[in-house]
Structures
1.
Amino acid sequence: MTGSGHREISGFAVALDRGYQTATHMWVKLTGPGRVTIGLDPLGIETSGTLAQLALPDVGTELTAGRPFGQLEAVKFVGPLTSPVSGTVLAVNKSVVADPALAERDPFGQGWLIEAELSEPADLDALLTDPLQIATWYAARIEEYRLSGAIAR
Amino acid sequence: VGDVLRVIDFGRVSPLRSQTLWHAMAYEVGAGAPVTLSFARPSAPYVCLGYLTGAAEVDHDYCRAHDLPVYRRMVGGGPVYLDDRQLFFQIALPVSVLSSSRPAALRAMLEPAVAAFRAAGIDAGFDDGEICVGDRKICGHGAGQIEDAVVVCGNLIEAFDHERATRVLALPDPAHRSQTLRLMRRYVTATPGDPQTFMSALADAYASALGLRAIPSEISAAELERTADLDRRFGAARWLSGPRRPNQSISQHRQVKVRAGIWTLAAWAPGGARLVASVVKGLVERVTLTAPDLSGQARQAERALAGIRFAAVADVLSRFGASGRELAAVLAGVGGRL
């Protein structure tokens, strides 16, 4: 879906109002002082295959930047969801756990994964946040994935 | 990845070790050990859950009564029945050498298996991502990332106990079990390949695909130590229970995937209506509807549902009274995503 603050790049909608951990395709949106929502961007979802199952942590779980906070299963392949920040889980999107397709339909909206309180606000500095840089990175990554056969569209 | 493909034949091992040995190997490959292909055959039957499978999908009472241990693996897929007539293989390699696309990575790591089946005289190919002969699945596969390694597993099924593979599943509705068994018999089959030929061909195929030299090898001391740790972890009740799933206690439907594109479904509505359906390639193949308030209309509804796309089932059901509408609401969140 393409909404306000979103831009379409080579067929993929990308939200420009948040930060990205480029290696993992996780997005982070600041929703209040020291408070963020975290999700998986459309390229991360596209390269996973059709999502079958998601396992997310309980509220209160400690997050460590660079470490798994949950698991994703697609095409009978289970892999980690890596946290882009350190902190504590404040809320879990039970709707997306019950219906992982929600992350495919609305990755930047109703398909969010967890909400967290930051313990290391400086983690945000490591994210890509400049809209122009996000757009450039996304276009380059799409091209790279197309050339390598990782995505077909 | 170096230039060596370690090939380890664990032989006949206990059900627990038939899981923990290759998980240990995957951890070590993630820590820098060479790419490793291993083989194992369980010495006794057991049941294994996929990493994110709900433990409630297995009939634990039946398993206890029939001395079938239940373990949870760290790769995907659903609950499966394993015995000594299935030879399992596992290839573990660093995540960094695989495609960024999981479907592409999985396909690349299953192609050598297809080549090995063919070398063993089995006319294998891909059908909807599954290794099949024609439209019958002949290899149960799964994959997972374990730390910095990816492991892809599969099996050569020399004989398959369809009844037991169905019976170990927790299926409260006998009609659902019956439909599942029928589709299991139709779409899952054993193949008569020679295990030694298959193993040798698989080592050659992976070595060729990865540009490595296959070297027969033994498990390392570090892997044995890791295996002992994993024996304890996999044997713990907490590990078996797995990740908590939402609404498990109030779930109003149960889906069983037989193979890609082939699945069965049972759904029950608060007012007592029940529906059991089999779905083949997106189309409702058979359906049984029990709804006290529909009387003669239940058969009419069954006829209306047979042959339609599963995506249209809720719409059709909603035309059949309160029971139909309740079942339609239950089915609204159901799809063929397993």
2.
Amino acid sequence: MADISRRDFLKLLSITPMAILEQPLVRIFNLSANPDQQNIILLVFDTWSADHVQLYGYPRETMPNLSMFADNALVYHRHYSAGTFTVPGTASLLTGLYPWSHRAILLGGEITPEHRNHQIFNLLSPTHSTVGYAQNQYANIFLYQVGQELKTHIPIDNFDLEHGLIYDLPIFRNDQPTAFASFEDDIFQTGVGFDGSLFLGPLSRLITSREREALNNESRLSYPRGLPKASGLFRLEDIIDGAIEILKGLSQPSLVYLHFFPPHGPYRPKGKYNHRFDDGWQAVEKPVHALSQSPATFKEEEDQRRRYDQYLASWDAELSRLLDYMKASGLLDTSYVMLTSDHGELFERGEIGHNGYLIYDPIIHVPLIISRPGQKERIDIQTPTSNVDILPTIASLIGRPIPDWAEGQVLPEFGGFPDQDRDIYAMDAKTNSAHAALTRISISLTKNDHRLTYYQYPNLNYKEFELFNLEDDPDELNNLYPAQPQIAHQLQDELLQKLAEENRRFQN
Amino acid sequence: MIVERCLDRSIVKLPPQATGKPMESTKGRKIMGILRKRFPIWNEILSVFGVVVFTVHSWSLREFLFRLPSFILKYSVSEISAVFFYHITFAFLESVIFCGTLVLISGILPSGWLRSGFVYKGFLFVLVAAAAAIILQRNFNDGVLTIDISMKYLFYLGVGGGAVLLIGLFVLAQKMTRLQKLIVSVADRVSIMLYLYIPLDFIGLLVIGYRLLR
């Protein structure tokens, strides 16, 4: 110490600010240099159809804040889910596998043991801290299937106004999927039907019903149509606040999967949005499909469509707070932020929702918007992509080889080849056994501008092909199957061959 | 003999020694005396427990079998077995809670109301409660009543109507010894199912315990 002169001391003092800034600067520079050190934030909005977002050409301005976010992001215009409802759609997103491989094809179904450890969390757990939250109970089951490699599993009802899902109690932590199968909609029924518990079941329903009545009355001013409901009642603002809290406490690098229930029905926007889109605009009326179970009228479809749009607008207003937070906190500079959905929603051909057999664009065409760290321009991608591409893309982002079991490709702009000719499949097999060949199935093959859909339901004595040109006929009104046999048979052969190939494993 | 013991005490007087072993200490005797005075005898409780177990387990199994085809489509055999044992174990817990509540109520109420003739009264109570529960279950959808009635009126109707029906049945059975005997003998026969359900419950507790603690 005696050797340090006053001059040396002042020199040292002058570089003190640099020493203070050293850690953050090194972090920022390292992050820019090493993509595997950046966060990956995957925001999934359940039942979000791209066909209801103006960014994708919808005439109603349902999500203006999303459009602003997309100004600095990659917008995938032809992105499709591999499933038509939460179970297959989410499983495909998380595993990079088509439903014929992950076999989560039925309501409450699970990912087959062979692929249980093939989720994005397992892939990233060696390098990233993993955080998962799913407000949809069917998606939440997949998070339980990950096991220890999902470091932080946020309880499903964490941001809800109601709590107390039995299978989510700590006592069942080692057996959640089976406890879920036993208690939810079984021993305790929440939908139509009888409870497995004779006395406690209806008692629980009475108590829940009273609680909900009280909660709805309390929130009548903000939510005149009642509070939004997932497994319990919740407020849109609470789940956004919750998401912000999760992101605030993030350790870098992290993989964050947040699966929000909105805009899944019931469509209950805030009061301010209840009369939005009373504009007289109507979608094209489409003929009722033969597979439509209890066909809704066109008026009912349009009423529900408007409610869905209002709910989307209400959700977008809340979402803007989350997007603003990510921008203000610098997370957008250090993270890949992906916004997408597990499946869409139908308001046509007699169908409302996503519980039927039909496959048309609104039910499989979902948004995919990705913001790269520090991105300052919008890039539109017209190449067809699938939600099975998310996992390979994430693998490629962190410098991992694409797992050999993955069925998707790396997305364009992330090193993937923009392949216009690729085959994109989507399917629904909710009445087929998960342990058997797919024989009761709706399956579509989208290739170039065409989509061939095959409906095979021997139990309903229904077997039909439909072919549409998505470029010339985006409303899928003109079935070209009889008129264009060449394209029809080419796609048909390809689809049937693929189906036969995937079914082969069950032949023995 | 069981039939006679289980009839209304106002009709058939029971010898006090038939209700259990005498306690050694004075304090113990005092407690046993209070319990005997306030609560039904063990055999009666067991008979009613048999009826509750039969009703609750049968309903639970009915629901399990109703859902079995969908379980077969999506779950493995081991998962389906686990779901079965969850059903059985929960049914056991529900039976204990229901029967325990009934015994507790009989101890709180004046003895003539429920304790004397506990078997036939308990049987009728289970019958009415089960019917009410099934009607209620039928009319709920997604946490909302499908019948056009407010929760307040449903409560009045359910509790009030159920109580009136129950009191009516109690009075009827009290006046008709034959009906009492018939109910008690049915309860006695139904109790035989305890030999099937209780061992299953025991296995269920072991299986679920293992699954939760592994």
